[in-house]
Amino acid sequence: METSRNIYKDDVDFQALALVSPEFAKHLKKNGQLDFSNPEAVLQLTKSLLKRDFNLELELPDDRLCPPTSTRKACTTPARTSLATTSAPASVL
Prior knowledge:
Layout: H1 14-20, H2 22-25, H3 39-54, H4 69-85
């Protein structure tokens, strides 16, 4: 994986994220950790990362799954890198 393009290659600094996202700050424990077993906390983490990193706002119905942003990024980066380095046959262009 090309780590220079993966903005989530390092752990998320929850304290720093809490400073720019008051809604996320509500889900942090006193020790600065996040309870990943709490679906609302994980959803808010994803929302806060999308807002901070891409200026996107996410609205998701309660009955939908919400994979963590860093996991989705880690899964799509290899495919994106592979596509970027593969040339298509002239007949496809």
